[in-house]
Amino acid sequence: MADLNRYIENLEKHRISKSQLTDEDLRQLALELGYTEEDLQSIEHATQAHIARGQNFLQNQLHTDAILEFKEALSLKPNSPLILVGLAQAYLGQWQADKQSPDKHQAEHFARQALAIDPKQQEAYAVIRALGLKAEGRSSAPIVAIAAAMAIVVAGAIGASTFMLVSDDSSGGPVSSGPDPSLVTNLTPETQEDQPTPNTAKLPAGQLPVELHMPDGLGLVLEVRDSTQDNYPASSFYKYSYLLTNKGDKEIKEMKGRIELLDASGDAVALHQAYIMGTHDSKLRPGDSHGFSSTLKSSPDVKSVRLYVDSAPTQPAAKNYPPGKPVQVYWDIPQSNKSAFSAKERNLRIDDASKNLAFFRGDWEIQNSSGQTFELVRFNIVLKGPDGKEVDRVNRYLLGGSDPYFADGETRLLSTTNQLKSPVTSYELHVVEVQ
After folding, report:
1. Domain residue extents for the chain
2. Do the domains 4-178 and 206-316 sit in the same CATH topology, yes or no?
3. Cα separation of 242 and 248, whole Å?
4. Looking at residues 288-317, what average pLDDT do you find?
5. Residues 372-426: tens digit of each pLDDT
């Protein structure tokens, strides 16, 4: 296989001579360097792995780690609006934490770079507005841009980093984490001072019913663990935490959908896109469950919710799956019940690290047998070389603080795809944080 470093070096040369590199430019460059179509798929896989890790770090407010992952992705896919927006959002989060001017400048730089490539990138407008700057060349959907901007500002106030929704589709219409103007009534832009604070008087809040819609034969069952409408004098927010269980006869590889917030008449007053399950997650076998959650801009008129699963590629499930290999779980934090979690290895692939684009890929079933309920569980996957010494440590959340709680007796899926820098022959699962 051709040298990946040589590929990146040639990308840098082309970026100097050409303001933008299209996907076809990248493909032709790779073919000129001797790459095969299989190699191109590996490069794309590496890019998506960096993006997935960057988004995971961003959602958990690990901004420095997110920046490193998005920069790695950008080195493989220059001028990607999705990656540029991810960098802008990570620098924005870092700036909001410490107010260092270089972070602010970087956030603005990457946001404007994304807009130069795709003027419809609403999340880039949101970053610029959150920085208190003027977004020149405003999109034709200003209400959406303002709503998305407020989502990022609010995220810091209520700990909901999952307001982020990025799209790499520069040809279609805008995708926004804010309400769709054509479906929203009684939603007006607010200033940062209008956002809820601990001292703001809260109006009555209640659980909202949720109705699931999905393609015929998919066989998903929805468990609603939180469906709360919080109304404030100047704004409203809908907070949800859902658990989908596959009761069908197929493996589900990915899920995309939308959430409609409805008034008493059943009319939609807000619409939000939902990236329910990514390709970097473990495939959802029959019997598996997948949790997801977020906080959305809402309206005081909302009385019920519809969850649509619009896209869910599947593949035939096996008649019988081989039993998972038991794996010891180590605890790096005090824990009275050392058998609180049991783990089984579902899939494992360790590439030869002497090859370019070598990966460690793993999927594990983690069962909670502690008698307790957890709201956050974080693992380190410790990779070891031939001599048994640690060569890398991968940080992975089994569930973040806003995900559906992990009840006693439940099983959740942990997965990782990590590029190898040195030979790996074994690994260990370490619990490093629980709440």
Report:
1. 4-178, 206-316, 325-434
2. no
3. 18
4. 89
5. 898 888 899 999 999 999 999 888 888 876 678 899 999 999 988 888 888 999 9
Fold annotation for 4-178: 1.25.40
Model confidence pLDDT, tens digit, residues 354-377: 777 788 889 999 999 988 898 888
Considering the domain 206-316, what is its CATH architecture?
A: Sandwich (2.60)
> Is residue 75 pLDDT above 90, yes or no?
no
Which pLDDT score is estimated for 339?
Answer: 63
